[in-house]
Design goal:
heterodimer, A: 13 helices, B: 285 residues, mainly alpha
Chain lengths: 294, 285
């Protein structure tokens, strides 16, 4: 019996482990190896350079710029989609008429490709006829307001983040809504009978009970901010003058535009370590919450 | 997902409710505007758009943008390529997830929890971490500039979510069902395929919608693994065609609309599954 189970474990698990091992785990470890080399992407020969790439990373102003921009993106990810998603979820959870239609509208951007979202927002920021400048003209009365949001170093990164947040908000809302349905309704009914006003119910009962959902949304938003690449490629290409460059994009540029694969690998190792620390914190938090709520 | 109605007085008119409803309408319209803009642009001439006439409902049905897109032979190639990547990668990642998920749910062993956690954490890592070694691997295999790297990598990257969801689903399948099957002389494979699979169709539908959408929309892997036009997928092709139709915004709009159509249709018809997948994948990590 036990022997038969071992047989099936191996047979059923082997295909997934093989594919995952060869095409995900092994490349991950291999990245570490390349980060200690000066490989250029073509040459079959390369030299071990020890920690040179990492030493260079911390002297490279481009890297510092990319780290700073990634940090800005992460902070924005903690605010924009999380707060907007929470707000929408609370509004929709009041049983308002047509909430199903509203939900679908807010979900919709999730199923659009980052390439499409990028294109949509390029048009919104279009200097001559874009919606944003048209709206500013209409509100302020300024004629021919032609600010090029994506071509100005001061606004490019922020403009991309807003477009990205537009898509992420729906995802945050979905998870908050799932969290809200898990709150027992008799708890709130009891509070309502005791004459506790709605805003206090929200503040003292609903929000504390949304903690598990909040942990998930925060972790996902941060991770997705770290992953953000497609939309940046489409909207600004990291520019102008690297003003919207992030770690994920910087890594791509160094490796596949400048063919500094050794250096690119070192950047990806840093990216991995950041992601790993977020994931460890996330899993710990989930476990802690599980102990409280299960 | 059932809604919890916090308010017992649903239906009766109250000013607070009306204000809430109105503010949601305004928010929804704001939220829809970007998407509406692209849809409208597809039915307008470049001249109309440049003159700021993007936001009106077109008086006549102008379809030249679609004609331009659909008669472009590259577009057809992009669509076929995307389908050739999306279909097999979706199917194979789900199959691998079913097999592995069954073991994690019904045949746990020492260390299986840790192994499961390692696989699931694959959901969260930025793909940049494996770009270079994969590029080198496929280069050595002579597969760069074919569709194979995309199929293989999407299968591999799909394993975390597929294993996670199938494992969670199978955990809810009663053990008695499996044991009854085994007592009746069925082996593990027969129990999985004949007893467990028929009841797990909802989970498979969830995964199919998620995987289809993600793989269809992917941009990074074809960017890395392809060079020539005849192996480009639709999202990559879209970016290249933008160079060809620089100021032909209407054509770009028609392209974006057509490229999003498959995922929009999946979303419209399988929204329930799609949403369930997103929440399950996120909450039960």
């Amino acid at each position: 019996m036990e022997q038969r189970e071992t047989f099936w474990r191996i047979v059923l698990l082997a295909p997934a482990l093989l594919v995952f091992g060869v095409f995900v785990v092994w490349p991950l470890l291999d990245s570490f190896r390349y980060s200690f080399t000066d490989w250029n992407g073509f040459d079959p020969n390369y030299n071990l350079v020890g920690l040179d790439n990492f030493a260079r990373i911390f002297r490279d102003p481009e890297f510092r710029n990319a780290i700073l921009n990634t940090a800005i993106w992460i902070v924005a990810a903690l605010l924009l989609p999380v707060l907007a998603g929470l707000g929408l979820a609370l509004l929709l959870n009041t049983g308002v008429r047509g909430s199903r239609v509203f939900k679908s509208i807010f979900y919709l951007p999730i199923c659009l490709a980052a390439v499409i979202v990028g294109q949509i927002w390029i048009w919104i920021y279009q200097p001559d006829w874009g919606l944003l400048n048209t709206a500013i003209e209409a509100v302020t009365g300024v004629r021919r307001f032609n600010f090029a949001w994506l071509a100005e170093p001061s606004s490019a990164l922020g403009a991309v983040i807003v477009a990205w947040a537009w898509q992420q908000t729906g995802l945050a809302m979905v998870i908050f809504l799932a969290g809200l349905t898990a709150i027992p309704s008799d708890l709130l009914e009891a509070a309502a009978i005791d004459g506790v006003p709605r805003w206090r119910q929200t503040l003292h009962i609903v929000l504390p009970m949304l903690r598990p959902a909040t942990v998930v949304v925060v972790a996902l938003s941060v991770i997705n901010a770290l992953k953000g690449f497609d939309i940046l490629y489409i909207m600004t290409g990291g520019g102008p003058f690297h003003s919207s460059n992030t770690l994920a994009f910087f890594m791509y540029e160094e490796s596949f535009k400048k063919y500094r694969m050794g250096y690119g690998s070192a950047i990806s190792v840093v990216l991995f370590l950041i992601a790993l620390s977020i994931i460890v914190i996330y899993f710990r938090q989930l476990r802690k919450l599980g102990e409280i709520y299960d | 997902m059932t809604d919890v109605t916090l308010d017992a007085s649903r239906g009766s008119f109250r000013p607070g409710r009306a204000a809430l409803f109105l503010s949601l309408v305004v928010l929804a319209l704001l939220f829809l505007t970007p998407t509406l803009g692209v849809i409208l642009s597809a039915f307008k001439t470049t001249r109309d758009i440049a003159l700021g006439d993007l936001w009106s409902v077109p008086a006549t049905l102008y379809l030249d943008n679609f004609v331009e897109v659909l008669t472009n032979p590259s577009v057809k190639t992009y669509f076929i390529n995307t389908l050739l990547v999306t279909a097999p990668a979706t199917a194979s990642s789900i199959v691998l997830g079913i097999l592995a998920g069954w073991v994690f749910a019904k045949l746990p062993f020492r260390g299986s929890e840790t192994l499961f956690l390692v696989i699931v954490s694959g959901l969260f890592f930025p793909p940049q971490i494996i770009l270079i070694p994969l590029f080198k691997l496929f280069n050595r295999l002579g597969l760069i500039d074919t569709l194979w790297p995309m199929i293989i990598v999407h299968t591999a990257m799909g394993i975390p979510i597929c294993t996670l969801l199938m494992r969670n689903f199978f955990t809810a399948v009663p053990n008695a069902l499996r044991e009854a099957g085994l007592v009746d002389g069925a082996n593990e494979w027969q129990v999985l395929t004949r007893i467990a699979l028929p009841v797990s169709l909802p989970a498979i539908a969830v995964l199919a919608t998620l995987q289809f959408t993600w793989i269809w929309n992917d941009f990074l892997w074809p960017l890395i693994f392809t060079q020539s036009d005849d192996v480009r997928t639709i999202m990559l092709g879209l970016v290249f065609l933008r160079g060809q139709y620089t100021v032909a915004w209407g054509v770009q709009g028609a392209l974006a609309l057509l490229a999003s159509l498959p995922t929009l249709l999946v979303f419209l018809f399988f929204q329930r599954y799609f949403i369930r997948g997103l929440t399950m994948g996120a909450v039960k990590g």
